[in-house]
Amino acid sequence: MTRDSELVAAAVARSATVAEVAVGSGVLASAGQLYRKHFGAGGACLIADENTFAAAGHDALASLSAAGISVRTHVLSAIPRPKPAVTQADALQAVLAIDAATPVAVGSGVINDLVKHAAFQLDRPYLCIATAASMDGYTSAGSPLSDQGFKKTITCRPARVVIGDLDVIAAAPPQMMGWGYGDLAGKVPAGGDWIIADALGVEPIDNVAWPMVQDGLSGWLAQPESIAAGDPAAVAGLFTGLTLVGLAMEAHGSSRPASGADHQIAHLWEMEGLSVAGEKVSHGACVAVGCAAVLALYDWLLTQDFSQVCADAVDMGIKEARIRAAFGPGEIAERSIDETRAKHLTREAHAARLARIRGEWPDLSRRLRARLMTAPDMHRRLAAAGAPAMAADIGVSRAHLRRTLANAVYLRSRYTLLDLLYETGLLARAIDATFPAEETREEDRS
Ligand SMILES: [Zn+2]
Predict the structure, then answer these.
(1) Which residues, chain by chain, have CB under 5 Å from ion ligand 1?
(2) How many Å apart are CA 367 and CA 196, to the nearest integer?
(3) Among 347, 195, 339, 325, CA closest to 260
(4) Mean confidence (pLDDT) of the chain
(5) Residue 443: is its pLDDT beyond 60?
(6) What is the DSSP string of 352-388?
(7) In sequence order, what are the beta bridge partners of 162?
């Protein structure tokens, strides 16, 4: 067993839901056998879209049929692409509910998230056949879906069995590997955010979930060129990393081990329906750019001395007005007000928070330096992996990026770097210093 497969086996053994993760070249051929082992001889309902069905659906059907499993199929149209929305998950639930079939998801991000939600609603375990190493949701308990236009991670259960056939994954559209690399890269600043929350006594680091993500991270991110070239060992590392991240979220009971300010930024763009040339920008691409932007804020943060910081508290009424001005009427503003209220501090608590920041700063800044990568380093890696790094790469202008960085803080109650900057009254200054308003050519900044 390699070190990575040992880590996966240990994480699976700890998982309440995931019973087996099969990663390797040609493992799709054992789908029927794995199905019988974990789900018995009852019928299956294979759910895919036209693209993912072409990638792995035929071989999955052949393997399931050879194992004596009766399978009905439900193939969604590829154009327009299936939407990650609760309404679509509900439609799949109705498809599944006509009999007792075990769901078999054949696909990547959206298909898996929709089936995960539908299977959970019906209290059925499911099998997931991954068609790309494009995100970390195969083994995670959460399903990030939009509900009345607000994207949130809904607690579900991960797949009982995940099949990651490296031949299928290497044949996926090349940009999907870049998306997976971007989603994994986001764990670098997300780790920084958790260190901050830990140091300030907001949310302690969990000694089970933290090492599952952070111990292997620099290794999985070390060879972006090889990942882009489809090198089997590097791709296996990427898929393993994404798998372990999912298991870490399940172990921790929230997405904290995997998602910080980088994901809040990404979720905001996803909710806005960010598109380039008529195509929605993928989750991993949004996270890649969010990750690079947050690391740039971290680079600035670590040039500052917070051991003397002072700031006035901001009243909840003012925050509410800012949120309404930022998002306009509707669900995003309403939910953001709730999330922001959940982390709002009284004046006394704010003063105590600042005192804690001042006191912790020498140790906190040392911990962050030891853990983070710089923004220029991350830009180089993302580009080598075929992922976007600059906001302009995904059609986000400088002004739009600045707005997003200022507003993402309201989206979730989860404490991140953005909250530290907000509470110290330095968020606007950090954004100005890092992404100045004047038109600077993107090339000049890397
Ligand atoms: Zn993600």
Answers:
(1) 183
(2) 9
(3) 195
(4) 95
(5) no
(6) HHHHHHHHHHHHHHHHHHHH---HHHHHHHHHHTT--
(7) 21, 128
Phi and psi torsions of 388, nearest 5°:
-70, 150
Query: How many CB atoms are closer than 10 A to CB 218?
Result: 11
Between the CA of 249 and the centroid of ligand 1 the distance, in Å, is 11
Question: What's the burial of 437, exposed, middle or buried (CB within 10 Å: 0-12/13-18/19+)?
Answer: exposed
What confidence tens digit (pLDDT) does each residue in 166-208 have?
Answer: 999 999 998 999 999 999 999 999 999 999 999 999 999 999 9
Ligand 1 midpoint to CA 336 (Å): 20
Pairing mode, strands 161-165 and 20-24: parallel
**Cα Rg of the chain, angstroms:** 22
Give bridge partners of residue 154 from the DSSP assignment.
143
Confidence of residue 438 (pLDDT cuts 50, 70, 90): low
> How many whole angstroms separate alpha carbon 181 and alpha carbon 319?
35
- Residue 15 reports pLDDT greater than 80: yes
Rounded average pLDDT over 314-331: 96
Q: What pLDDT, on the 0 to 100 scale, is given for residue 148?
A: 87
